[in-house]
């Protein structure tokens, strides 16, 4: 047998890609303590904490508006399956954490979807899970976004959209409210 045939099977590692954005990141440099250059290994039984206090958090954000411990990520294996995932927990008493439009209060936790956006204050974090098989550790790879991850939130249109999905060609006049029309009158 050749050494290739005798070599151990290479194990793929679960990697959590986190892309950070803050509108003041160029001036305030709140991400200066984060390592965006390489993947970082984290033991499976460790909790990855993000926050202001570098003695408590593995990932420090240099911003006085961030809680000492803002949130944590815990790697886990689902019961009766071989699937791995992450649980995110809000550890801030003052700031709510939003995960893909689900608001988490203090000590609330939720499973992290394969791809989602995490928001608190002016921070936006795109989280993407790259699945793997390793059980002893996972990796975190940090990225920095140059532009906002979330587009400007548009206010809902003031024009009603009929059930057929076609918008009316006439604009609503300012100050006039829409009039209900029976579908048989069309």
UniProtKB/TrEMBL annotation:
Residues 166-177 have a biased composition (Polar residues). InterPro entries: FHA_dom, SMAD_FHA_dom_sf, TIFA. GO terms for biological process: innate immune response; positive regulation of canonical NF-kappaB signal transduction. It is found in: Cytoplasm. Residues 165-186 are annotated as: Disordered. Its main location: cytoplasm. Keywords: Cytoplasm, Immunity, Innate immunity. The keyword Cytoplasm applies. GO terms for cellular component: cytoplasm. CDD domains: FHA_TIFA. The keyword Cytoplasm applies. Pfam families: FHA. Residues 49-121 form the FHA domain. Belongs to the TIFA family. This is TRAF-interacting protein with FHA domain-containing protein A. It comes from Vidua chalybeata (Village indigobird). The lineage of its organism: Eukaryota, Metazoa, Chordata, Craniata, Vertebrata.
């Amino acid at each position: 047998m050749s050494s290739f045939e005798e070599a151990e099977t290479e194990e793929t590692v679960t990697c959590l890609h986190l892309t950070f954005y803050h509108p003041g990141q160029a001036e305030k440099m709140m991400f200066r303590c984060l390592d965006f250059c390489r993947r970082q290994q984290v033991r499976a039984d460790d909790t990855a904490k993000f926050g202001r206090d570098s003695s408590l958090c593995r990932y420090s954000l240099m911003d006085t508006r961030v809680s000492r411990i803002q949130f944590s990520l815990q790697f886990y294996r689902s019961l009766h399956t071989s699937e791995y995932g992450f649980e995110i927990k809000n550890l801030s008493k003052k700031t709510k954490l939003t995960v893909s439009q689900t608001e988490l209060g203090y000590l609330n936790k939720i499973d992290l979807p394969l791809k989602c956006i995490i928001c608190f204050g002016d921070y936006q974090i795109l989280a993407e899970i790259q699945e793997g098989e390793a059980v002893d550790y996972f990796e975190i790879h940090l990225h920095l976004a140059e532009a906002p991850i979330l587009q400007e939130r548009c206010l809902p249109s003031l024009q009603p959209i009929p059930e057929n999905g076609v918008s009316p060609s006439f604009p609503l006049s300012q100050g006039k409210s829409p009039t209900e029309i029976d579908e048989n009158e069309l």
